[in-house]
Amino acid sequence: MSPRATVDDIHTTARAMPHVSVLRPERNPVYQVGGKSFVFFRTPRPDAVDPDTGERYDDVIVIWVASEGDKQALLQDERLPFFTTPHFDGHASVLLRASRIGEMARDELVEIVQEAWLAQASARRRRAWLDARGLAD
């Protein structure tokens, strides 16, 4: 079985993807490909709060997905700690708290971050990355 995922796995995987730029690398990084974000670490916002205390979560990570169907599949998988808020209705992304990332296997998280990159990369970059791995688009 794959080891448990860590926040460092997100950073390592996102940085390893081709043509990635990082905005605000020292605090709340935003990973982009071709000017499009595919993973970003959010600042606390009023739409994601602890239901018991009402305090804003300070560890929310936004990860893009390819489609609403992919989003729903991740949200409905009870093994995974992904969630969403009404603020993200209609947005092709899922939310993940850094404090819960260890509930996932590292390999699964790596694949999800790679899929986020694929969802935002240009067709040419996506095709080149997939071809280099012998995968079909």
Short description:
This protein is of the alpha+beta class.
Fold and architecture overview:
This protein is globular. Helix 1 crosses helix 3 (106-120). It has four helices and five strands, in the order H-E-E-E-E-H-E-H-H. It is 32% helix and 18% strand. The chain starts with 6 loop residues before the first helix and ends in a 5-residue tail after the last helix. A five-stranded antiparallel β-sheet has the order 1-2-3-4-5. It has 137 residues and is of the alpha+beta class. A hairpin with a 6-residue loop joins strand 1 (20-23) and strand 2 (30-33).
Question: Which key terms come to mind for this protein?
Answer:
single chain, alpha+beta, 5-stranded antiparallel beta sheet, 32% helix
**Average pLDDT, to the nearest integer?**
95
Summarize the amount of helix as a percent range: 25-40%
- Strand arrangement across the biggest beta sheet: 1-2-3-4-5
Distance between the terminal alpha carbons, to the nearest Å? Answer: 27 Å
Radius of gyration over all CA atoms, rounded:
15 Å
SSE topology string: HEEEEHEHH
- What is the 3D form? globular
Please give the number of β-strands. Answer: 5
Low-confidence stretches: none
- Helix/strand-derived category reads alpha+beta
